Amino acid sequence: MKRLRNIRHESSSLHVTGQAVYIDDLDVASQMLHGFIVRSPVACGKLLSFNVESALKTDGVETILSFEDIPGNNQMGPVIKDESCLVEQEINFLGQAMFLIAARDIETARKAGKLIQYEIDEEVPCLKLDDAIKQDSLIQPPRKIESGNVHAHLRNTDLNQLTGTLHTGAQEHWYLETQACLVVPGENREIKVYSSTQHPSETQEIVAHVLGVEKKEIEVEARRLGGAFGGKETQANHIAAWAALLASKSGKPVKIKLSRDEDQKTTGKRHPFISHYKVAFRDDGIIEAADIELNLNAGSSTDLSMAILERAMFHSENSYYIPNIRIIGKAYKTNLPSNTAFRGFGGPQGMAVIETIIDRIARNLGKDAADIRFMNFYNNTDRNLSPYGQVIEKNRLPVIWDQLIVSSNYYERRKSVNQFNHENQMLKRGLALTPVKFGISFTTSFLNQAGGFVNIYKDGSVLVNHGGVEMGQGLHTKIQQIAAIELGVDFLYIKVSATNTTKVPNTSATAASSGSDLNGMAVKNAIVKLKKRIAGVVSDQFNTHEKLTNPDKITFLNNEVFDSDNPERRISFRDAISWSYMNQISLSATGFYKTPDIQYNKEKGKGKPFHYFAFGMATSEVEIDTLTGYHQIIRTDILHDAGNSINEALDIGQIEGGFIQGVGWVTMEECKWDDKGNLLNHSPDTYKIPVTNDIPLDFRVELLKGYPNPNTIRQSKAVGEPPFMLAFSVWLAIKDAISSVDDHRSEPKFEIPATNEKIILAIEKLNNTRH
Questions:
Q1: Which among 362, 377, 380 is positioned nearest to 281, based on CA atoms?
Q2: Which of 260, 594, 676, 759 gets the highest tally of CB atoms within 10 A of its CB?
Q3: How far, CA to CA in Å, does 81 sit from each of 84, 301, 304, 691?
Q4: How far is CA 553 from CA 483, 556, 565, 579, in A?
């Protein structure tokens, strides 16, 4: 304690040295430098030597950094520490960061970058997943989920058998705002980071790690993101770390913003998969056993690949009860930029396998695939146990099926499609129905937590802060609504501030479709505390000798606070806040929430990883031109389960957007690399994402009504990721249209994406087989 009494003034050295920051010192714009990354020109090799002296002499260059200049740890791996901040020796992918330059403008920085001298010993890269499998370049031991007796049923000669392989491709996130970060140095070792990140707390941690300081010195703020889709969950950390290193060294603000081409070339994609399967099924189409192996292309480092692989495994049975099933997951290292999170987080790649299996079973038996799907659905009685041991509760698949089959007029349209194909040679139509069952929670259990921080000011206005990030999905709007409903005030009373690590610490990423679930509950928890305090003050004010007011009966509604037992006793919300302030009651509260009753044992492959499941279903009808491979979505009907929707307009927007992004993945978005690791299509003129003409001509999206979701915020359900997988209805409708070329006698070879080129090749193969 004696030491603490004699501690010096916290700012004394700053005052004496002139480093103390006052208002007039805040001149970010005129001091700001532009950061630039000098990247590896090869995909695999070793950095033998380098010299930056000539580049440093360039007029306008402030500083140049190599790995030798990193004051902390040269490491950015979010989970496994296998991703260097700057190349030390090993080069693992083309475009890997080697040097950082801060200059007065980006042109000067680029000019200096060309003057850096370095020697690289280039090696032969491994770029393709099948090559990585042959080389057995696993990044972690395989994972397994198993139930029943798979081998016995696969050996049963009374059952029908199918085997196959499915390739699913990469996908570029193509967020509108590319990766960007502005870092402003403060006093001593303080750093303020304005980052386009989905995970401010992890960005804070990575920046602190490379700078060699504690997290308390790093403040990360994210007002809003111009899109993310998972691409900014971990890989925004890179830009922040590089900008922070330059800002720390130069003592000036530094901004790094990737160009569209640079962003596409150097950031990770959706993981490509090669999946193998064996399945045994009865003559009526019921699946008895399935053996599935998922092989994932992780890229150059682990990133989130193992969690993504596990999510793919969790969803490999999608909506179907399979009593005997084994799912093996393997992740392989290649010399591509590290692949990363993307909407669905492995779920799409896993579901694609079982949807292919169902389609093939239907073709083998000569039945409608929709009927095979229906008879294999989970039910609510006995066929309701997942491969990993979680009971599928409150299953909405049957009710969604009943409603969608009628509203989409599925069976009548099946007849119409068949008639159209009989009458047309060059144009063919296809129809498909596909479901989704998607688990909601982070599968890494401890991430299922969130914090909130609510301030009520003397004028009755309310400022809410929480750990979630607004990236276009409407999270802040839902949080405003939740706060307004809980406080019983108009929406305009509430403001949600920028997400900031100094307000709510140790938050999880805004990911796993859990933004509203977790943060909404945390904000509610804070408001419950505040209402209890305010109710105590108001009840005291209401009390008289003749009649007492119970604080538990104080109600907040319609901008008023009143005694529900004595409704005449009421005041405005603003007056209640004024009373509370005058009575010296704290009008600030933190809130916290953790998802209850979830756990998963990775070694055993058993547990309850999900709080609940979201369900949905889609039917899509397409038309293809057999001469060009061009396809048009004629009509899509979607019925999706959002519980009691907090905001129907936002939820429908997410369903529409997720579905169309899924359509992009399954039909047109194809990443191509050459044998050196160069991404060949890295700009809007060579990489096609869905546009207006790719939206269904008739697009009908409805929310399932009358099925609230208990034990969640306002009885709602997450809606961000599940609709993505409904795009399988388009993919399989295209397959249906192709196979009509020979009256469904042969099965087209079909992968993801089904580009125009692949459609033409599949049709050509069918024609050659027929002739």
A1: 362
A2: 759
A3: 8, 9, 12, 39
A4: 20, 10, 7, 18
Give the separation between CA 595 and CA 397, rounded to whole angstroms: 24
Alpha carbons within 13 angstroms on the beta-carbon side of residue 136 total: 1
The rounded distance, in Å, linking the Cα atoms of 503 and 467 is: 8
CA distance 185 to 192: 6
| CATH no. for 19-124+173-266 | 3.30.365.10
Yes or no: say if 199 and 236 are a contact pair by the CB < 8 Å rule: yes
Strands 143-147 and 191-195 come out as unpaired
Q: pTM for this structure?
A: 0.95
User: 217 is written with which tokens?
Assistant: 């010195």
Domain 273-443+603-770 class, CATH top level: alpha beta
CA distance 282 to 711: 39
Q: What is the pLDDT of residues 347-379, one digit of tens each?
A: 999 999 999 999 999 999 999 999 999 999 999
Q: Does 273-443+603-770 match 449-594 in CATH topology?
A: yes
Confidence of residue 8 (pLDDT cuts 50, 70, 90): low
Q: Which tens digit of pLDDT belongs to each residue from 205-248?
A: 999 999 999 999 999 999 999 999 999 999 999 999 999 999 99
SS (HEC) of 471-539: CCCCHHHHHHHHHHHHHCCCHHHEEECCEECCCCCCCCCCCCCCHHHHHHHHHHHHHHHHHHHHHHHHH
Q: What pLDDT, on a 0 to 100 scale, did the predictor assign at position 611?
A: 97
pLDDT (tens digit per residue) in 82-115: 999 999 999 999 999 999 999 999 999 999 999 9
Question: Residues 281, 61: contact at Cβ < 8 Å?
Answer: no
pLDDT band at 19 (very low <50, low <70, confident <90, very high): confident
CB atoms within 10 A of CB 623: 20
Other C-beta atoms lying within 10 Å of the C-beta of residue 404: 23
> Does pLDDT of 771 surpass 60?
no
Q: What is the CATH architecture assignment of 449-594?
A: 2-Layer Sandwich (3.30)
Q: In the numeric block, which tokens belong to residue 358?
A: 């169902």
Buried b (16+ CB within 10 A) or exposed e, 245-268: bbbbbbebbbbbbbeeebbbbbbb
pLDDT tens digit string along 514-549?
999 999 999 999 999 999 999 999 999 999 767 788
Q: What is the pLDDT of residues 725-746, one digit of tens each?
A: 999 999 999 999 999 999 999 9
DSSP notation for 138-169? BSS--EEEEES-HHHHHT-TTSEEEEEEEEE-
Q: How confident is the model over 398-453, as pLDDT tens digits?
A: 999 999 999 999 999 999 999 999 999 999 999 999 999 999 999 999 999 999 99
Q: What angle do CA 241, 244, 248 make, to 5 degrees?
A: 140
pLDDT tens figures, 668-719: 999 999 999 999 999 899 999 999 999 999 999 999 999 999 999 999 999 9
Residues 6 or more apart from 654 whose CB is under 8 A from it?
Answer: 473, 474, 719, 720, 723
For the chain, the straight-line distance linking the first and the last C-alpha, in angstroms and rounded, comes to 94
Q: Which CA distances in Å does 635 have to 176, 352, 408, 467, 622?
A: 27, 21, 9, 39, 7
Q: Is 721 a catalytic residue?
A: yes
Count of C-beta atoms within a 10 Å radius of residue 214: 9
Q: What pairing do the DSSP bridges indicate for beta strands 180-185 and 117-122?
A: unpaired
Of the candidates 288, 355, 721, 757, the residue annotated as catalytic is 721
With CA atoms as reference, report the closest residue to 666 among 171, 225, 299, 253.
171
Query: Hey, is 657 helix, strand or coil?
Result: helix
pLDDT at position 26 is: 57
Q: What is the per-residue pLDDT for 29?
A: 81
List the chain domain ranges. Answer: 19-124+173-266, 273-443+603-770, 449-594
CA distances, 513 to each of 464, 505, 606, 717, 721 (Å) = 21, 20, 22, 9, 6
DSSP string, 236-297: HHHHHHHHHHHHHHHSS-EEEE--HHHHHHHS--SPPEEEEEEEEE-TTS-EEEEEEEEEEE
